Amino acid sequence: MNAGVLFGFLVYLALLAYIGWWANKYTKTEDQYFVGGRKVHVLAATLSDKASDFSGWLMLGYPGSAFKAGLGAFWAGIGCLFGTLADYVLIGPRLRIYAGKFRAITVPDYLEARLKDNTKLIRILSALIIIIFMTAYVAAQFTAGGKTFAEGFGVSVNTGILVTVIILTAYVITGGFFAVVWTDVVQALFMLLTLIIVPFLALAKIGGLDKATDIIASADPTKLHPFGGATGWAAIIFAIGYASWVVGYLGQPHIVTRYMSVEDPRKLRRPGIFISGIWTTIVLWGAFFAGFLGFALYQAGMLNVSDPERVIPAMAVELMPSWIAGFVIAGIISAVMSTADSQLLVASSAIARDFYHKVLGKEVGKKQMVNISRLVVFGVALVGLWFAISGPKVIYQMVATAWGGLAVGFGPILTLSLWWKRVTKEGGIVGMAYGLVSEVIFEAKIYGWAFTKDAPGIWGTIGGWFQDVPVFFINFFITLFIIIIVSLLTKPPEDVVKLHEELFRKVPIETGRKSITETRAKSQVENVAEFIIAKGLA
Predict the structure, then answer these.
(1) What does each C-alpha distance from 367 to 46, 67, 159 come to in angstroms?
(2) Which of 127, 133, 316, 343 is the most exposed place for a label (fewest CB within 10 A)?
(3) Fold exhibited by the domain 3-395
(4) Hey, which residues does 262 pair with through a beta bridge?
């Protein structure tokens, strides 16, 4: 084991330990444990949101995809960027306003209150979706951590998985949401620096972009084609297959929970979009070029890597002084932990709060609920550990499967409930039930994470039409359609419709203390949020 790499990583680990200790002082109630008391600054919430979003997929899965597919993998980056923007436009501000109105701590809290469901079915379905797919997502992060430790420290992947689980579970149990948010801020900065430095070092090593493209072209010319060499309909399918991540952003509980914690919903628009957009653009660029240039280094004999998804840690060890490589390894572990910690917290809230407390009606004190949640975090981590050790260990595929289940389960109903006053609890129940069952059947029994013509019977014919397109992309729109149809056939309570109209009605332009120009300079969402806060509606 390289002592320099170990030193850099231990410095990072000490920083995490300090944050966990500090955050524990501010984690005494259930509200503080799950959403930070709704007092998180927009800068921290935004960086935490993106760090939670991009996970080991950004540092390992996406570079590995660029290593294997070349220029065509850039479509995944485009999908992620536009998905990020869609979250801040379609979900963030309105969800924060509604969450404040209902005092909602979790996504199931919000959905149950918004749809006025007294059957508990929406909360039960939400908990099942979160438990099944979030546990699978956590397992993907553990696998990413295992691969990083294996490449950086020369241990086995399974040993690396175990170390990841121990570190991660310790600070989530200790500090809750505050620990998760502020470690995410540090981790977001680590990720940013890593994905700026590594591609430039790779360019210097290979001798420039022209030299790199020449090497790649001689090895496989299709890697320089934006559609992987495909044309016509096949090219469109190719682009959709990679860019399909865009719809998933609307239904990720570990991401949208950040919006519920922000102190002021107005800041989720311009400051939130600006911070998130800049950070996302830089890291996606860096992750793509790290994998793309890593393939050139590999072909030129300048880099030895046994697994495409381990290309960034391999480049760090090869191209940097060992102690700096230790910090890069820490940056990769940051990406893994920044997502897994949020997912553990969301999964624990689904079991401890949504199922144990709300569905079963177990009345416990606030401090006791925090302790129960910590025990649940430990239990979910053990299940995720088992899946990580026994699973396929292909991060891109593992993340796509879990991402898809959450996207279909929550994305359509979240979006419609925030923008359409006519959506009903019956539509939500039927749509979420279909999303859960269909994703499990299609991905576990029929296709896997993407459509394929090799599926049996008529499923193979359908799979051939959408070959290699992720199942969740098509299923998202089917679920959306089902919710709309069922909602049109049923009727929402009048008070629910009235509340929606009251919260999001057009706010007239002020001509008093503020000029018309000053007021119009704001977006309509900012004006609505300002009006709601002034009237004490949220």
Answers:
(1) 28, 48, 34
(2) 127
(3) Sodium/glucose cotransporter (1.20.1730)
(4) 40
